[in-house]
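STRUCTURE:
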């Protein structure tokens, strides 16, 4: 599976999904929707990161959706072909709404970038610090497994280990609650790889 991402160069391209940290079809969750002046919107949970320029002051910074305010700007695309020339622009946030919705999905890419409904976002949340480098380091073992194992085995490993990962995160809490289980997840994924070959 591939999703649209926005690279640091500004080029749009498709990138493979390495794993899902959430894939919950029936769960009911509280979401925020950030609406822009161009009638675009992105819906995510409070802790999900997107690119924001606070009160129109550049540069864009990694910001949790819960910290977005009216008058901030987000990066959006109007979309065209070829992908390398997709136009990106900044649009002001004109409204923020809340809703309860069914389903929770969080795909992770190698770069940590993702474009959702034409809004530039990230694939990680405030369960870890707002750092692309940290996200990429935590995803490195997953990327290694992705290159070595068939997708069917990866799906099984992903589903089992994510269950353990998030139960551990809830028990430990805070930043250590994200880092410790992530290290545990990486070692278990490597162990699972050895067991499967």
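SEQUENCE:
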């Amino acid at each position: 599976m591939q999703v649209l991402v926005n690279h640091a160069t500004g080029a749009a391209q498709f990138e493979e999904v390495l794993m899902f940290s959430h894939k919950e079809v029936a769960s009911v969750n509280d979401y925020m929707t950030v609406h822009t002046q161009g009638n675009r919107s992105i819906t995510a949970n409070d802790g999900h990161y997107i690119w924001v320029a606070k009160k129109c002051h550049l540069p864009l910074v990694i910001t949790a959706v819960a910290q977005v305010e009216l008058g901030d700007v987000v990066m959006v695309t109007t979309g065209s072909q070829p992908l390398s020339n997709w136009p990106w622009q900044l649009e002001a946030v004109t409204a923020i709404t809340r809703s309860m919705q069914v389903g929770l999905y969080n795909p992770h890419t190698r770069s940590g970038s993702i474009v959702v409904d034409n809004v530039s976002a990230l694939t990680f949340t405030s369960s870890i610090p707002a750092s692309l480098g940290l996200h990429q380091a935590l995803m490195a073992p997953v990327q290694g497994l992705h290159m070595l194992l068939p997708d069917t085995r990866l799906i099984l490993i992903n589903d089992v280990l994510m269950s353990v990962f998030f139960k551990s995160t809830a028990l430990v809490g805070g930043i250590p609650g994200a880092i410790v289980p992530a290290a545990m997840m990486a070692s278990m994924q490597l162990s699972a790889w050895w067991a499967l070959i």
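REMARK: The radius of gyration is 17 Å.
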